[in-house]
Protein: Protein-histidine N-methyltransferase
Organism: Chrysodeixis includens
Amino acid sequence: MGRKSQSKQSSKKNSGKENNKFIQQRRKELTILVDKVLRLTSIFQASNYVLKSWEHQLEINALIKEITNLECPQHKSAQHNRQANIDKYIKWLSENGAQFDGVEISEFEGYELGLKAKKDFKEGSLILTIPAKVMLTEKSAKESELATFITVDPLLQNMPNITLALFLLLEKNNPESFWKPYIDILPEKYSTILYFTLEEFAELKPSPVFESALKLYRSIARQYAYFYNKIHSLDLPVLKKLQDIFTFDNYRWAVSTVMTRQNNIQLADTDVTAFIPLWDMCNHEHGKITTDFNKELDQGECFALRDFKPEDQIFIFYGARPNADLFLHNGFVYPQNKHDSLSLSLGVSSSDPLREIKLSLLTKLGLAGVTHYSLYQGELPVSAELLAFIRIFNMNQEELTKWSEQGLPSDLVSSEPSSAEAVGADIDRRAYTYLLTRCVLLSISYKKSEEGTEETLHRKNIKLLKQCEVQILEGAMKYLEDTISKLPAADKPK
Ligand SMILES: C[S@@+](CC[C@H](N)C(=O)[O-])C[C@H]1O[C@@H](n2cnc3c(N)ncnc32)[C@H](O)[C@@H]1O
């Protein structure tokens, strides 16, 4: 061997050593950061936690930023063009028995991809059939090499959505994956809150979704830290495969894919979390559930929720879910949402001298542990539970004693005229006026809230969400004013 090639080899060896040293150093730094995330996200969430949650978020965000800086240079996935992968996807679906005659995948402004009708579909007619074999499910995960980890991990045993996210990551990294054509048409990133900047989180205020979003982010950061530790400490071949691909960025992608696309299907009498290809290309509109799993034919079936004409976008109904839920878990807001509601945080203060008796009445009605009540969009904004709470909250000692003497004071949880009569206009006037004041103050706080100027998809969604919440408040204020004005004149003082 010549001197030149010897020195080449030794310099290669040296650079290999350097590289190893660098990787080890990076691992060490990551382990320290991940431990900090785990500790921060495990802090007991006391009742005054809300006050601290923002400070907490700042700390967690700073750590995650350091983590992604260390992780990402090596593992940034190459940009991919979804459109370019559609043909292969369609071929794979056809070859595996999916039926979708008269339907094509197309881009729609404001929706990314969706399904387009190429022929007439009458309401109730069959649009798609998707055989179980192309579905990527928690069952597929349990039958894969991931099973060795699932059986020893308590979190995975109880959380099929996380199992599915880890399985998706493994399959994404497997060039031979049966689901490769499916995985290749998935979005590269999402508009879920896992992709929000700190400024965007802050702009959510005063929406109650602000707290839920921080909570969700903390929970995913905690999961990431938990699995990072497991993946780098347990001696399982499948975890070795995950070591290089399990980054925060990849985990939030996998979790967001699950959040925005998962479905539940009944396989052999058990509920299974699944990705259903093509079906999950349908965007949401108001309607009814028209998708089902046909056990006999072992396939998912999707029927038209209304008439669709050629060139129309084909929508499905994602279920009766408020915008807060769609925003948090699906990364969009549906302004015409007939199932929208606003969550109000209400409780009896620890300094209230009538706290005990109020709590005991709430307990009788099964409302003792309830900390949030819904205000609905539409004609009847006050739920029965909210009405019961505001009635009890506004009672005096004498009224509380009287209502406590009844076995089950069910009239309190009803807005029927006979119940309203039993409760009396005095209590209801105080109750409705209290709620009206709450709504007025809340709606003022929305007007004062700050908004960013840059119009990103995240900001568009935040703005829409807050507009929908203000609409619910305005509807409720109108309803409450009307209701108060129709109450019988005040009872004469005794
Ligand atoms: C099951 S996927 C539907 C296909 C998706 N558009 C795509 O490009 O892959 C659900 C996602 O589609 C988008 N989406 C669905 N319905 C929507 C709607 N009514 N308005 C805006 N975006 C919607 C949201 O990003 C949501 O997370």
Notes: The chain has a mean pLDDT of 92.
